[in-house]
Amino acid sequence: MDIPFFPDGVSAGFPSPADDYCEQTISLDTEVFGNAPFTKFCVRVTGTSMKDAGIDHGDIVVVDKGIEPADHDIAVCVLNGEFTLKRLKVEKDSLWLLPENNQFKPIPIPKDADFEVWGIVTHTLKYHRKRK
């Protein structure tokens, strides 16, 4: 889906004069899902453990199963049969799932845990209009 795109941005401070026309479009399909949409899926976030990363309850995250997990990635993981969304902390001899909200505690992953990274979060879809 192509929609109008203003590549010069929009001021979030003082207003600036804007062009009366737009000469470019952007493909949300390509921008969000890239050239390999078959490796991606979306999931709605429940809970507030990632709020300080800008991921809020009700947001939709785009997750890529084709990305190799790395330190500091935000990932959808399965731990002991339950899904969770956390930041990965990879250390020499240990792995942690870190919340982005100080009301929650980091989760150490024991070497014998039933654990899998399902995919890495690449985008967040957020609704900004106040809901009634």
TrEMBL record:
GO molecular function, one term: hydrolase activity
Keyword Chloroplast listed: no
Pfam families: Peptidase_S24
Gene Ontology process terms (BP): DNA repair; regulation of DNA-templated transcription; SOS response
Alphabetized UniProt keyword annotations: Autocatalytic cleavage, DNA damage, DNA repair, Hydrolase, Nucleotidyltransferase, SOS response, Transferase
Protein name as catalogued: Translesion error-prone DNA polymerase V autoproteolytic subunit
Similarity comment: family membership: Belongs to the peptidase S24 family.
EC class (word): transferase
Record-listed E.C. numbers: 2.7.7.7
Keyword DNA-binding: no
Source organism (scientific name): Flavobacterium silvaticum
Classification via SUPFAM superfamilies: LexA/Signal peptidase
NCBIfam families: PRK10276.1
InterPro entries per the UniProt record, alphabetical: LexA-like (IPR039418), LexA/Signal_pep-like_sf (IPR036286), LexA_repressor (IPR050077), Peptidase_S24_LexA (IPR006197), Peptidase_S24_S26A/B/C (IPR015927)
Peptidase S24/S26A/S26B/S26C domain segment(s): 5-121
Superkingdom of origin: Bacteria
